[in-house]
Design a protein that fits this description.
globular, 35% helix, 4 helices, alpha+beta, Aspartate Aminotransferase, domain 1, six-stranded antiparallel β-sheet
Length: 124
């Protein structure tokens, strides 16, 4: 199965309004604006877990729906899972468009209202 690579993740995340990339705990992480909150992190073999994944902020209820609905594609990530975040395997056949939808949802979940509206307006 094809794997979405770091360039795919980076392009999708940085394609959102005022998104910024910074390193967080040694991994590429993406923030909603210069003072905004993190909405995504790309991790490869985090602490030896063997996963090629992105961790994403998620709207209320999404974590259980996604993880319960497709446990081969989604998981509860350590450290941030208790806050409702989702882990997404990037080597399990997820399409670029599928990842882009999940990333947009993550962004809207944490972004300031004016940035979230820009994404929501683009989607409608």
């Amino acid at each position: 199965m094809p794997t979405l690579d770091p360039d795919d993740v980076r392009a999708i995340c940085l394609g959102l309004p005022e998104a910024e990339e910074r390193t967080s705990h040694g991994n590429p992480a993406f923030f909603a604006g210069s003072k905004g909150r993190m909405f995504a992190a790309h991790l490869v073999d985090h602490h030896g877990d063997g996963r090629i994944a992105v961790w994403l902020a998620a709207p209320d209820g999404a974590q259980s729906a996604l993880v319960d609905g497709d446990p081969d594609a989604f998981f509860v990530p350590p450290y941030v899972g208790h806050r409702g975040w989702i882990g997404v395997h990037l080597d399990r056949g997820l399409t670029r468009d599928g990842l882009a939808e999940l990333v947009a949802d993550a962004f809207v979940t944490v972004a300031p209202a004016r940035l979230a509206r820009q994404v929501e307006d683009d989607e409608s």
